[in-house]
Amino acid sequence: MAEKISANQFKAFGLELDGISKRTMDEHYVLYQGYVNKTNEIREKLEAVNLTTANQAFSDVRALAVELSFALGGVKSHELYFANLGGKGGKPTGRVLEVIERDFTSFEAWQAQLKAFGIAGRGWAWLAYDNFDGKLHNYIGDAQNSYPVWDAIPVLGLDVYEHAYYLDFGTKRAAYIDVFFRNIDWEDVARRLTEAEKAAAARKG
For residue 183, which of 17, 22, 26, 15 has the smallest C-alpha distance? Predict the structure, then answer.
């Protein structure tokens, strides 16, 4: 039997965020719960699907597997995004700032690029530790199942689907991204970066 997942709780929902309303966050959480429910539903259906009917043009196997990537990608990306919120934003300190300045020349250069990627993307932008070169990179994903780079570990997620900001900002996505920067929990990002770097070091032996 497929193991069911449950929607998690996040500290940001108990805080008054700077420029992101409680209504937006509550509506956003409902959408996240929907992804959790669909992940469970699709996994259950995959257990019973007739694998011998698999076909690349159309088959139940293909339809379920593709939509699982979208639903589960929605779960994972939203959990990253929600966990990244609830901090004081601004410029980080310590290892996070050191690595950002190393890989982007300056914090301001990183921030400008992520904002541009968020405006250019159709659904998501991420800051990720890429095991290919051991550096941080910003990446665009037009949907949560179109993350473009294998073996890269996202440490910061920026949701730029309209549901993330429309109630508060209308079509002013750039203004929303500015507010997002003011709410980043850099401690959460630091923890994820530390885990990614430790895992990379362990792989090298």
Answer: 17
